[in-house]
Amino acid sequence: MEEVEKAVQLTGSHNSWRSTCINLIASENVMSPLAWRLYNCDFEHRYAEGMPGKRFYQGLEYLDEVELLAIDMAKRLFRAEYADLRPVSGSLAILAILSAFAKPGDPYVAPSVPAGAHISQAEFGAAGIRGLETHHLVLDEKEMTLDAEKCKKVIRDARPKLINAGGTVLLFPHPLEELREAADEVGSILTYDASHVLGLIAGGEFQDPLREGAEVVGASHHKTFPGPQGALIFGSNPDHYRKIKSKIFPGLVSNHHLHRLPALVVTLAEMLEFGREYAAQGVKNSRALAQALYERGFDVLCEHKGFTSSHQVIVDVAGVGGGTWVAETLEKADIILNKNLLPWDDVSRSREPSGIRIGIQEMTRFGMKEKEMETIAELIERAVIKKEDPAAVGADVREFRQDYSRIKYCYDATNFKYEFNVI
Ligand code: DSN
Fold first, then answer.
1. Are 113 and 341 in contact (CB under 8 A)?
2. Candidate of 24, 25, 27, 311 to mutate for ligand 1, largest count of ligand atoms within 8 Å of Cβ
3. Average confidence (pLDDT) over 127-153
4. Strand ranges (DSSP E) for 47-185?
5. CB 242 within 8 A of CB 215
6. pLDDT number for residue 156
């Protein structure tokens, strides 16, 4: 079939192209070779509903054990009282949490999207679908972190059932202890969307939401945490989990994409073993890239506080073509990142925002360090500021990338024997 040939060819083209690009999308990552190998397994074809040992389908003897391993390891890694790996996406994890603690019409508090919230935290995303009355936490735009005093006032005035900190632009830790104080005053649950920084939390970098006051954490596990695509929820209070559980199943997830689970066990093990080294290098890399871009004339946010404490770098590119032009020009040079709203952009400008967001986690996985961040900054400068032909810059990108094709911070897949076939 012509269509099949086309699909095969397009998939191959995508695979070869992105393996030669400098991949800087802050929400992406690559699995380790062993995780990737296990991902392609028969669990993909099977159905499970409910909890291990209490399923509604037969044939899950081995899956149950794998899922219990993953749950146990996630609890250990994040020092949590419970962990549920069934949400198949970050948005569903957030929606399950929102549904557990707030009903339609209830007040709810989260940052706005320009202030860094993910769409699932927003009135036009999962929070809106749940029918919540959304109030916004206040970001200190200079410091790029929530303004504790102003947020406390919002919480005291709105008296929300639920507060959802964290989000999709996260340069610096948020003041969770202060938010928790206000949450306790009004009887609100403090949750944290850790999708972006989950791998940093696992590696002891950034902030540890459960230790700082958050009670429930929802996160996708494929951004800084380099697992298969999917999500989890974990937290400190088992009573909360009783409420969340039924929202996941039978509420929002029927089958939970079972082939994720062995790949997740591998990723959890690799993060337990190599996570500290990976996360520490990641933060060094984002700071080095920010510094190198700044020295080349880019308006990188938060120079006064070292630019970033996470894997992200945010650049105001309004003066050099705008977010859309910069992202599209860099794509022509095989440097892949995304345009992004800045806190002072109106949300209606999401197609023409002032900023770009850069994430260093994938290139860190391929072994890049501070020196390589200098090279990346130079390549970006050539395409964006010096306006060199992107195709010429792209040729240098592809040559540079050749030396970074093996994933680090993981087990050697050849040390494990696997004798199963997919079909
Ligand atoms: N939209 C994604 C991000 O890039 O942050 C998260 O799902």
1. yes
2. 27
3. 97
4. 50-51, 54-55, 82-84, 107-111, 133-137, 139-140, 145-146, 162-166
5. no
6. 98
Q: How far apart are the CA of 313 and the centre of ligand 1, in A?
A: 15
Query: Cα–Cα distance between 392 and 12 in angstroms, integer?
Result: 23
Task: For residue 320, count other CB atoms closer than 10 A to its CB.
Answer: 17
Q: What is the pLDDT of residues 35-76, one digit of tens each?
A: 999 999 999 999 999 999 999 999 999 999 999 999 999 999
Average of pLDDT values for 281-287? 98
Q: Cα(119)–Cα(122) distance, rounded to whole angstroms?
A: 5
For residue 250, say if its preceding peptide bond is cis, omega within 30 degrees of 0: yes
Answer whether 218's CB lies under 8 Å from 231's CB.
yes
For the full predicted model, state whether its pTM sits above 0.85. Answer: yes
| Contact call for residues 146 and 138 (beta carbons, < 8 A) | yes
Output the six-digit token pair for 263.
């790949």
Q: Measuring from atom 3 of ligand 1, which residue has the nearest CA?
A: 27
pLDDT score for 209: 98
CB 272 within 8 A of CB 318: no
- 234 - beta bridge partners? 83, 217
Structure tokens of 144?
């790029």
Model confidence band, residue 418 (pLDDT cutoffs 50, 70, 90) = confident
What single letter denotes the amino acid at residue 222? Answer: H
Question: 115 C-alpha to center of ligand 1: Å?
Answer: 14
Q: Return all residues near 245 (Cβ < 8 A) that are at least 6 apart.
A: 84
Domains parsed from the chain with CATH numbers: 34-269 (3.40.640.10), 274-401 (3.90.1150.10)
Q: Looking at ligand 1, which residue's alpha carbon is closest to its atom 2?
A: 27
Q: Give the Cα separation of 306 and 290 in Å (integer).
A: 8
